[in-house]
């Protein structure tokens, strides 16, 4: 009909906009997923470490990688409930492979790990929220300090049941690494004492050190000096074997002899003191591990800072200014 305005559905002409997901959410979830995988990796590597499959360097690398994601999550995760959920998943992932461990130790480890990680995260977030500028190390240090303490406690708790299998905290191969490092210090003080080869060479070098200023020894011909050295070395080997309570062969590696001596003494204390020894040994190990944790977390802090700068430079995260003149991390 002319002059009649055709009917129109004005509502249908407006296309509803599809809800958009903030791309930063996927980035945060990616870091969270990598953190959970890193926690699972620590559990896997530590289980192998206790069994002698992995060395101390691989374990430190796995713990360092997990610590890196833990520190980064303190910057990226803004929701408390979300962060606590991720921490819970990380705790489960780290302890999952130790399901055969005594449930009491496993539960204690889970509570300690979750509580300390959450404590460190809260301290880091508080520093981040209350500052006008983002001071990286002021945020990362509290997180990593609690992280190192948590890992020291949990690793010791998971180690204690290994006494049922007559295992030390470190395998003989890992002990070799520490022994070689200590031997380097000894060689600087006593360059003529050979502490890195066989036990026979060690006692012979010690015997030579004892006899080098002896006038009677110097007066002997070379063949007689060699015989005298061998006699003194044999006597030293026998005396040390009796004192250590182990059988020593001249061809045994010095590090192996020391490892056998230490394990024998510790096993003897375990028999004499029973479960009290496990408690005392666990406390000692905690302070030893925690002592190494100071330089370790400083190294991790530097590594995390490098990763943080790379993420900023790549645009994965960026710093924005808020209306209250407060810097914040965006993604």
UniProtKB/TrEMBL annotation:
Assigned keywords, A-Z: Membrane, Transmembrane, Transmembrane helix
Name of the protein this chain belongs to: Uncharacterized protein
Lineage top rank: taxon: Bacteria
Transmembrane segments: 25-46, 52-72, 84-99, 105-122, 143-160, 273-290, 296-317
Protein's organism: Candidatus Liptonbacteria bacterium RIFCSPLOWO2_01_FULL_52_25
């Amino acid at each position: 009909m002319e002059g009649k305005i055709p009917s129109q559905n004005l509502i249908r002409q407006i296309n509803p906009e599809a809800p958009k997901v903030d791309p930063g959410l996927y980035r945060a979830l990616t870091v969270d997923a990598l953190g959970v995988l890193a926690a699972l990796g620590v559990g896997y590597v530590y289980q192998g470490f206790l069994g002698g499959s992995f060395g101390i360097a691989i374990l430190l690398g796995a713990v360092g990688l997990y610590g890196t994601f833990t520190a980064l999550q303190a910057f990226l995760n803004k929701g408390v409930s979300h962060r606590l959920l991720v921490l819970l998943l990380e705790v489960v992932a780290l302890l999952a492979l130790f399901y055969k461990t005594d449930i009491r130790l496993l539960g204690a480890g889970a509570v300690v790990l979750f509580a300390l990680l959450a404590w460190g995260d809260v301290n880091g977030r508080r520093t981040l929220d209350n500052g006008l500028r983002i001071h990286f190390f002021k945020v990362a240090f509290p997180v990593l300090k609690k992280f190192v303490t948590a890992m020291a406690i949990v690793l010791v708790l998971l180690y204690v049941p290994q006494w049922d299998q007559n295992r030390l905290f470190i395998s003989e191969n890992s002990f070799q690494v520490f022994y070689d490092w200590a031997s380097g210090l000894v060689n600087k003080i006593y360059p003529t004492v050979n502490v890195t080869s066989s036990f026979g060479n060690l006692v012979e070098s010690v015997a030579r050190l004892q006899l080098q200023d002896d006038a009677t020894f110097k007066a002997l011909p070379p063949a007689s000096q060699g015989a005298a050295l061998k006699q003194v070395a044999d006597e030293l080997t026998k005396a040390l074997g009796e004192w250590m309570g182990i059988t020593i062969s001249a061809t045994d590696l010095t590090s192996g002899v020391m490892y056998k001596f230490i394990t024998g003494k510790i096993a003897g204390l375990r028999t004499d003191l029973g479960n009290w020894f496990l408690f005392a040994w666990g406390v000692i190990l905690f302070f030893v591990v925690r002592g190494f944790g100071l330089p370790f977390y400083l190294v991790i802090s530097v590594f995390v800072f490098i990763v943080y700068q790379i993420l900023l430079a790549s645009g994965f995260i960026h710093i924005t200014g808020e209306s209250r003149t407060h810097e914040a991390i965006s993604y």
